[in-house]
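Thread: "does anyone have the structure for this chain?"

Original post by V.I.:
We have the sequence but no experimental structure in hand. Need at least a predicted one for the grant figures.
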Amino acid sequence: MKEVRFSKPFTQQEAIPDSGIARALDILKTGRLHRYNLLPDEVGDAAALEMEYAKWQEVDYCVACTSGGYAIQLALRICGVKPGDKVLANAYTLAPVPGAIHNVGGVPILVDIDDNYHIDCNDLAVKALESGAKYLLLSYMRGHIPDMDKLLTVCNTHDICLIEDCAHTMGAKWRGVRSGNFGKVAAFSTQTYKHMNSGEGGFLTTNDPELAARAVVSSGSYMLYGRHGAIPAEDVFQKVRLHAPNYSGRMDHMRAAILRAQLPGLENNLARWNQLYDRLHAHLSAMIGVMIPTRKQDEFYVGSSIQFRAEGLAASMIPDFVAGCAKRGVELKWFGDDEPKAFTSRYDSWRYIDDIPVLPTTLRVLEKTLDMRVPLTFSVDDCDVIATIIDDELSRLRVN
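Reply from O.Q.:
Generated one for you, tokens below.
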């Protein structure tokens, strides 16, 4: 019997909409790529994008940035994190998150996770009390939203400023509230593998007018802050404009133009992702030796990637499993590897952090965790083929 193989790449994105390509070409012909290089009375694509995204996100203020990582750094700074300040963060995340804390001089205090890839609210309360940290950088890693009611209770009890990293949850919700609308400030990413694609890029959003004004000036507006889109009134800028440093991380018109073309189709794309995710989830849930969390009813997720644990295999067999799937065209990333690979790294590989803690649940959960992108270039039938290959490879190793 011929072995089933999969031939589509896991890193191929859909094309930018024609309207975005056409607008980008128009901008290139003008030569005016810089966001403040405008004709008299011209709004510009970067400012228009900020207004459109703020409306979609249901917030007052938005700043378009060069990357999601820059947006996180900017959020930490405007919220008041200074060198030496301790910042709580869930240990299951990607390297740019602790990197952003390190960039602003903060000290990461890593918090354990639970079996469902969420930050452990009990450990958060303990770490907050022990460390005295007044900031939490919450990463919704791979789109998993924790019980926000419990988390906000911990933050309120310990007077913690919540900063949300929504790189993986653009469009996701908890009890009808969009991720990013729970804390003081939120950061979003529009890097190629996220929910909108500008290569690199991101947003900072907030409902706090003074923080918004600081973010605009610190993003690199000079005294041209009035050319931004979703901003507070002039009197707020008068308070901060000479006190906010310039960190030069603003978005240009080119990236803004291709994002504006994608935003109207975002809701439809969220539904498409979840159709693929739900098909894969159903297959994986039925496999022997596979553990995959059930999503909470209070959570509206966006399934642009999927995670599962190969509990039926010994950890020593995971590399063979990953290699077997790869030979048949299915690309999996292993979060339990002792050595960082590509974008994937475990928290104890970030050696620049002093006193890296032992987090038993995080280590146990990640030991057999596999991660897979679910690009919109896949179909539901593709999901069936992928699941067949995963099940075959698991069965092969279990038998051996």
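V.I.: this helps a lot. The first strand starts at residue 61 and ends at 65.
O.Q.: and The chain has two domains: 18-265, 266-399.
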